[in-house]
## 1
Amino acid sequence: MKTIKVELGDRSYNILIGSNLLNRAADLLCETLSTEKCIIITNPTVDNLYGNKLKKLLSKSGLTVDLLTVPDGEEYKSLDTAGRLYKELTDCFSERGTPILAIGGGVIGDLSGFVAATYMRGVPFIQAPTTLLAQVDSSIGGKVGVDHGNLKNKIGAFYQPKLVISDTETLKTLPQKEFANGMAEVIKSAVIRDRSFFNFIRENLPAIMKQDSGIIEEMVFRTASIKASVVMQDEKDTGLRNILNFGHTIGHAVESVSDFGISHGQAVAIGMLTEAKISLKMGTLEKNELTEIEDMLSSCGLPTRLPELDRDSILQAIQHDKKVTNGKIRFALPGNIGDVYITDEVEPAIIREALEE
């Protein structure tokens, strides 16, 4: 097991990464919090795989456990679903000290975290991510929220978990498409921060796609470490943390315009390549490095072409992004692999050209 300490003063917490950690969840929870009760929030798919097993393990340790489910799908990451969960928590007699344990992917983590942040003005929150995307990205850093008005994460908060339990064995039950979605965030992390890690991914890609346990654990650890280091320096996303948005300014717009028919990882892949092309057009990224990024995305089964979506609608959606300030769109663009820069000086014409290409 590998441990990352996210140092945020009284909001500090550990990220635990390793095989079969869910079997130890009861001990890990009790070591972190003093409680006699726990609420699990998950979806039907994860419930069938791990939820009921986890409930039994926690109950066996002496905890009173209630398990709540949310249907699969981004469309359920909403205020309506949050409202239903508030009622169910009340019906379970959940108190201010009763922790919510989210087990699942990013939708469950984001939604459960938002509910934890707002129910009784905040209850303890634990993440048990079961997708690669969630283990390397959404479970880390305390960004929680729901979609609203067809716009991604429009309503939310910063609310740090008390613990993150990343059991890498759960990744072996993922469909290939879902594993590829997570690889988009892995590649993003390497591009923004660590050229040697980018090379590690490329050199170990066959083992990664075959889910070699040792390589996967190292990959999750290195990706999570990159995000944790950025979060520790800029928890509230006022400066450095903006670099984590590489691929997301356009990616979130693509998700929204597709009515979330395009998954987050696929949208981020399209966003990264489009934003890399913007950087190329602005003279800050070399063509060969753009090709390296494109080749790696393709090798992981991620899209490198924008589907038939209306470009004007994408541009309009970008204007509603949370990263727009004083009407200017803020991008994190790669200067080279391993380093990005923040700019709000990208002309709309360049964005359109990159989308068209």
## 2
Amino acid sequence: MAREEEMGSGWIQVPAAWTALEPERLVGAVMIIGATDSGKSTLVRWLAERLLVCHGRMGWLDGDIGQSSLGVPSTMSLAMLDGVPEGLPRPRKSFFVGAVSPRGHMLPLLVGTLRLRQQATAAGVTALVVDTTGLVAAEAGGGALKEWKIELLQPQTVIAVQAERELEHLLAPLRRDRRITLHVLEPAAAVRRRSPEERAAWRARLFRDYFAGGETVRMVLRGRPVYGLEKAVPGQLLSLNDAEGFSVSLGIILGRRGEELEILTPAADLRQVAGVRIGDLRLDPGTGNEI
């Protein structure tokens, strides 16, 4: 039976199968996989808070670029937790993918996951919960993406949230892989499916809130590496990156004149910006809606 438990954001119904995971025994990378609207994000947050009891510092890697929990859609984010936050924790590092769907962007997803994992390891976390996108369909490449992400990160534990048999193409070999402890859970009863329109509206709100306090700045590109300059048209989303390739801030292109871009961005200080990466997503700066 489910029972009520308190999280930083309030009370939730926790299925008995979650507590059977024995969070105190989980170490290293713990990867969560499941289809869209399977309740992965709630499970990730509950698990992160429970792991804090057993670890002095743990990491939360939000790899869901479409329905982000920690950062802005189109980015992957890493947060470090030393104590239970009142709300969602602030990301320590962000990696820009530049899209809200894994389709056509699987290489940057894999690279970003590994780079953020390396940051967590360098920071001394002893447990890292990894949330993933809801793309799991084999015919869409979701199976291959999850398979190679598991091979890349080599998690000690994989937790799969499966409603029927939508993950079986992934789980069949994992059940025999002695490198991994596999747990298969049913979605929580309280999970509600959201329509594509609802998910798009959620992303638009996050983008709108993110850019609400932004300012228009002019950036001279000369001397900086710019990846994807051929996509520099009004409305295009970009990332202002630091010297390590992590995102300092996002921006929306408002115009271009030669070697200068006019950008809407909340970044207060552009001196950290060592490079620019232009994504594949276009936004309406006023509404946050995808164009």
## 3
Amino acid sequence: MQNQLWLKRQNLFALMMAVLIFISLPAQAANNELPSLAPMLEDVIPAVVNITTTRSASTPDRLRSFNERDLRPGAAERPISSAGSGVIVDAANGYIITNHHVVVGSDTINVVLTDDRRFEAKLLGSDPSTDVALLQIEAEDLVALKLADVSNLRVGDYVVAIGNPFGIGQTVTYGIVSALGRAGLNVENYEDFIQTDAAINMGNSGGALVNLAGELVGINTAIISGTGANLGVGFAVPANMVAAVSEQLQQHGEVRRGQLGVQIRDHTPTLEETLDAGADHGALIVAVMAGSAADQAGIEVSDLIVQVNGRNISSGRELRNIVGLAQIDSEVDMVIYRDGERRQIKAVVGNGGDSNVAQSGGGSTPDGRQLNDPLFRGTQIQSHSSGGVAVVNVAPQSPAWVAGLRPGDVIHEVNRQRINDLREFNQEVFQSDNLTALGVVRDERPLLIIIS
């Protein structure tokens, strides 16, 4: 009896699983057609082009592209050719996006379409900081890709990479979005990469990363590999950054970076415990340049920027990317926290690229009290006539020095608490656990210095 009951249960379970599998099959499979990416790719592939470049042997080696170095080693004595990929983003105007490193230093740039038509392309502009370049060809009957709204992209979404790996011709690989917001490949660049395990190899640079709707989500640009071969860690410049850079390259032939005129750092839950700014994420203002866009907008040191133009800001890098790619003289709407209070503020983006606000302070006197706290190892301070304490000396490579404290600085706040003399300074520092936030005046400008 028990065996019969067990068999009935097993049969019922098998029937339920069969129904679930049938329901989950795509409509194509239910109609005796196998699921396939082919219909989408038939529309997308004509928008992805092969790019070949040539340069004279006299071009400096530092300008040789990533692809070229790997594809043509030891060929510096004769004209050099290299291969890459590109994506048509405007059929009417013949605009093609590729990587800066694919075309940098090239004497000629040739584009080959999927129908084997060949054109010499004009380089309209290139931006090394985002690794994006804009080309133009004069051709009819082009197919362009629509740019996706990457704000809706999620880790785990399926994506397809299309390009020209190793110069062998059009190739398609697929995978998922492995991570979003990757940075750190080059700290000087504007990075917000989409990471994918879709196979990207040398020659895929400048090619398309598309979603299953056939929309462009990114331009393939880099891999992490000790051998130069794909290890499932590839990166693409997201479509929103591509669009912003492309617009500026069309208008100016270069990217004219916007700036607020601030120094920033990432805000963290640990910092929030000390500063009580009002949120545990965002871009924390640690310095404001006199007369800058931020100064004119009323932004202050210790303000925490958590949103720009409706986009949430979780790090200083995100703020830098948005402002750096904004049009000069455009207005940005920001949400900030000041002393725990949420505020809205508008600023007009200034010109001039990145600027260092805080400069080293002036000289010091030999007098001063030596601090024994590990964070302030080798630091000497003395009372200041205007209140607070003046920094007389800072030991090089000490935590205080690494954080940016310099001789001549005048400390007026410790962990958001006003201090008037050495006794109050020592009392507040003694109460600090993992880090100390100093409100400093240097050259008559306020700074926030975090020592950890």
